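Data availability (excerpt). The following record was deposited with the supplementary files.
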Amino acid sequence: MSTGVIIVLIVIVAAVLVVAAVLALRARGPQHGGSLKRRFGPEYDRAVVRHDGDTKAAERELSERVRRHGSLHTRPLEPAERERFEARWTAAQERFVDSPREAVGEADRLLAELAGARGYPDGAQYEEQLAALSVHHAHHVDGYRRVHRVTHAQAQTHTAGAGSGGAETAAASDTEELREALVAARALFEQL
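Predicted structure:
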């Protein structure tokens, strides 16, 4: 092969690669849905469901979260502060055996305080705090959502005709939900 033919082949291959790269970038679209899906993981799927399957609307919401909270700089905890949070978490877990609902409530308050101490929006602004946490801890934020939901759920009423076996089953189911929420929340606690 002559040098001219080799140069022409290299130019053709380079042109094909450039065209392929441009087409790939256009296919991703302006919101970069693939990167949002990777970044947010289960939060991406939750946003799509919340928007009735409209991925564009979900991606707009998630992009807005990144715009608002993506540059948030968290502060590290002082060693003594870290120990206090860890001791409180351990106490909440130990309390679960005797008082599951109170233990989960303490976990909810503790996560709000810990996130605030690290520099996230104040826990009194739960939705804003959750949005900021989802940008930086998307794979673990659902645990916080679960303990918050269980803590703030209205007391469920049981049907008047339920016998003691039904009440025991409901209590066991409720305790299991509380346990699962606390376990899921632990991952975010450890991340923070």
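Summary of structural features: DSSP finds nine helices and no strands in the chain.
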